[in-house]
């Protein structure tokens, strides 16, 4: 396990690292998730060249620390991730980022361009969306006030999301989980979609086959590859790791060793 101090409180961001050559690959999890369980099979897949790979957990999630005085906005997550990557000696990385993590990675690429040379989003959030009571995911969590979620609401969310998602969501700091969900529902200014379309680096958006993102033609027009992965749902890397890894081989830099 590796770590770096990324917050004035001394809070550390931690990651599992697979050794290999640069440029590095950085894998970022979604809301209530953690990177190693979601990405380990793909990151070590025999189809992929053995590049250095960081399976990193954002503050408040998984094995990383949970500072109370951290904002847990998409921008704050992006800046703390940038701090961790710089301390790890990462630059010009390929970012592979799922769901909420894709929103963070998009903000990271817009704010810290030296760190990201290639952005691969996996069924990621691109647009703000209103809180919606009794829903799973960020919109359902954001429908609670912070205090209501911390006191009782998390139990209702636990019962709605099911045992698979809860197995990693239960590791998250409750306040961090709620604040991140609220920020994700609110979105960024400009929106994550606008930030993504304005980037000049290679970009791709992977989605379950038959469930393309909204306004996919606009993404394509801005140079984003929009690719469907067969036999998969939202957790593409878990549902069809073989097809996911095969698709990554077409998107990673051609000069990767």
TrEMBL record:
Recite the UniProt keywords alphabetically.
Hydrolase
- Single GO MF annotation: hydrolase activity
The record, for Gene3D superfamilies, names: alpha/beta hydrolase (3.40.50.1820)
Q: Which residues form a coiled coil?
A: none
Segments forming domain AB hydrolase-1: 26-195
Highest taxon above the source species: Bacteria
Please state what the protein is called: Alpha/beta fold hydrolase
Taxonomic source organism: Nonomuraea marmarensis
Taxonomy, top ranks, is: Bacteria, Bacillati, Actinomycetota, Actinomycetes, Streptosporangiales
